[in-house]
């Protein structure tokens, strides 16, 4: 192992350990991804001759937008919203934690520099981390006090609420024009009876989920999931940790398809509030059964 790689892994391990053990903090320890040893320094992409994910300018622009969108909402809940911008840290992950009345998401340059990462994909990661704070029920039974929405719910929140808010004032037709669109995402979003703007936002949210599934599949060295092959498994107890890549993509897709308005609030106790939860009322948009048990 090269000297710089060894040092980078030491830095990554120390950073994660320090984050998890600071006094007074309440953290959902697993991060956006399961624990991994991948570390992507600032200069690694150019040395490897591959696309560097997103740029530092995009990284900061995306997080500026998230900060502006959520600071007031979290302030109304009596807390302060803080984004830790760890561009120079090559850790390939992201975290949510609380330090007293400061609600924090920690976003890392290594995640942003992953070769498969897009700007919308990275925004979805940030939305997932916000979802741990604001995603409502089901809440984690682990850690200390059930403050955090579980992993699957945070994925669902990302497209159900957060990305819709973030894309609301964008030129979504222009954004989609630069992408290779998945025909399944397009056809399903068009079939939901959305307004033109909401249809475009649905497609864009679904494509963000497709991007993240590609990142997850590469990390796990598995085949890339497809929207046409949803996870067939059914759990009988809600699964709190990270679902598999296909299941997570299914969750992003269903969140995008849900017709409940983005500004209808979620609830910390009742998982039904503000979501698509009734199969007799909604053909699409329900949380996938590969992680969720009603």
Summarize the structure.
With 294 residues, the protein is an alpha+beta fold. The chain is built from 10 helices and 4 strands, in the order αβααβββααααααα. The N and C termini lie far apart (48 Å).
Radius of gyration: 18 Å
The structure class reads: alpha+beta
Pick out the low-confidence regions. 1-23
Number of helices: 10
Query: What is the 3D form?
Result: globular
Protein described:
The chain has 294 residues and is an alpha+beta fold. The protein has one domain. The protein has a four-stranded mixed β-sheet with strand order 1-3-4-2, sandwiched between helices. The N terminus is likely disordered.
What attributes characterize this protein structure?
single chain; 294 residues; alpha+beta; four-stranded mixed β-sheet; globular; disordered N terminus
